Amino acid sequence: MTVTVTAGSPSYPKGDVDRSGQVENSDLIMVARHVVNILTLTGEQFTLGDMNDDKVIDNKDIITLAKKIVGM
Ligand SMILES: [Ca+2]
User: Fold this and answer.
1) What pTM, to 2 d.p., does this model score?
2) Is 31 helix (H, G, I), strand (E, B) or coil?
3) Judging by beta carbons within 10 Å of its beta carbon (0-12, 13-18, 19+), is residue 39 exposed, middle or buried?
4) Ion ligand 1: residues, CB < 5 A
5) Which pLDDT belongs to residue 13?
6) What is the pLDDT of residue 33?
7) Tens of pLDDT, residues 22-72
8) Among candidates 64, 54, 58, which has minimal Cα distance to 15?
9) Per the CB 3.0–4.6 Å rule, which of 12, 26, 34, 66 could disulfide with 16?
10) How many A from CA of 7 to the centre of ligand 1?
């Protein structure tokens, strides 16, 4: 028997910027790149990276995301 799970509208955990299903170092790198203007996060990725929902991605979000990754 094969069970196929189809997510109609997938939702990702806060901080999962690359939408891999896990909050990990690669997400932190993307947020850091956004902060230093190497990368521009938009739409859902921006929302996922804006850890404190203040509509700005800055150092505070990097710190919050880093703490989440290391389990603090
Ligand atoms: Ca923020």
Assistant:
1) 0.84
2) helix
3) middle
4) 50, 52, 54, 56, 61
5) 96
6) 98
7) 999 999 999 999 999 999 999 999 999 999 999 999 999 999 999 999 999
8) 64
9) 12
10) 28
Is residue 7 pLDDT above 60, yes or no?
Answer: no
Q: Cα(3) to centroid of ligand 1, in Å?
A: 38
**Could you tell me if 69 and 24 are in contact, meaning their C-beta atoms sit under 8 angstroms apart?**
yes
Tell me the CA–centroid distance for residue 62 and ligand 1, in Å. Answer: 9
CA 61 to ligand 1 center in whole angstroms:
5
63 C-alpha to center of ligand 1: Å?
10
CB-side neighbour CA atoms (13 Å) of 42: 1
